[in-house]
């Protein structure tokens, strides 16, 4: 992806979120120079990979296969492993009209996926084999707003604004905006996008970036290189 495209997506996404009453935390608007200058103060932000995340899954087709994310808060894996402390994470996502977030599951993370506003959120579901891998013939059971719901393999849930689905490790899922763009909330256990995404197809999690212009704000995937 071109950096100029990423900058434009950030500005557009900020406006879209504000339409539904969501304002990002102050660090979201720091310039790269400000982030560098305050990196010691913002150690928890950087180590927790909180912030902007825009991906085309390495496929170069963002409008067709991609996702906007902003990690608002993220807990500590050590707390999760010992069973107490900050064991949770929260994100805002934007899934554009017919923009696919491809089929995947998580090894560790349980998550509530919530339609926070906009169009319908379509979530395609499959169950898993005993080892957790994708099984195209397996259905399963999820919770939708606290109500148990059985699903057939490949069934698509249509979540209107305010509706949600709870996904556990082994619940394979893909999603997109149906009929328009959707603002999505994600509330989950501690999030690790570098190791906890299990994709059905061999694709990447992060975009490769063509630095055609300077970044407006850093992506979480920039932190290691820009803040070293």
From TrEMBL:
Q: Report the GO molecular function annotations.
A: D-lyxose ketol-isomerase activity; metal ion binding
Reaction(s) catalysed by this chain's protein: D-lyxose = D-xylulose
Q: Which InterPro entries match?
A: D-lyxose_isomer (IPR010864), EcSI_cupin (IPR047581), RmlC-like_jellyroll (IPR014710)
Highest rank taxon of the organism = Bacteria
Keywords of this entry = Carbohydrate metabolism, Isomerase, Manganese, Metal-binding
Secreted recorded as keyword = no
Keyword check for Plastid: no
Essential cofactor(s)? Mn(2+)
Name the EC number(s): 5.3.1.15
Protein family (similarity comment): Belongs to the D-lyxose ketol-isomerase family.
Protein name, per record: D-lyxose ketol-isomerase
């Amino acid at each position: 992806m071109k950096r100029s495209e990423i900058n434009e997506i950030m500005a557009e996404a900020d406006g879209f979120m504000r339409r539904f009453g969501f304002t990002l935390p102050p660090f979201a608007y720091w310039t790269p120079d400000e982030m560098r200058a305050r990196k010691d103060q913002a150690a928890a932000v950087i180590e927790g990979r909180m912030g902007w995340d825009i991906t085309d899954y390495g496929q170069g087709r963002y409008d067709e296969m991609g996702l906007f994310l902003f990690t608002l808060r993220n807990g500590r894996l050590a707390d999760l492993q010992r069973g107490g402390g900050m064991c949770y994470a929260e994100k805002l996502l934007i899934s554009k009209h017919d923009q696919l977030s491809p089929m995947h599951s998580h090894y560790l993370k349980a998550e509530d996926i919530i339609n926070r506003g906009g169009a319908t959120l379509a979530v395609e579901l499959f169950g898993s084999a005993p080892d957790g891998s994708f099984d195209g013939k397996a259905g399963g059971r999820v919770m939708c707003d606290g109500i148990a719901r059985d699903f057939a393999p490949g069934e698509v849930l249509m979540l209107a604004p305010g509706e949600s689905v709870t996904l556990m490790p082994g619940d394979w899922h893909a999603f997109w905006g149906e009929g328009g763009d959707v603002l999505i909330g994600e509330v989950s256990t501690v999030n690790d996008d570098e190791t906890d995404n299990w994709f059905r197809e061999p694709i990447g999690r992060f975009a490769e970036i063509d630095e055609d212009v300077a970044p407006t704000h850093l992506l979480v995937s920039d932190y290691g290189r820009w803040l070293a």
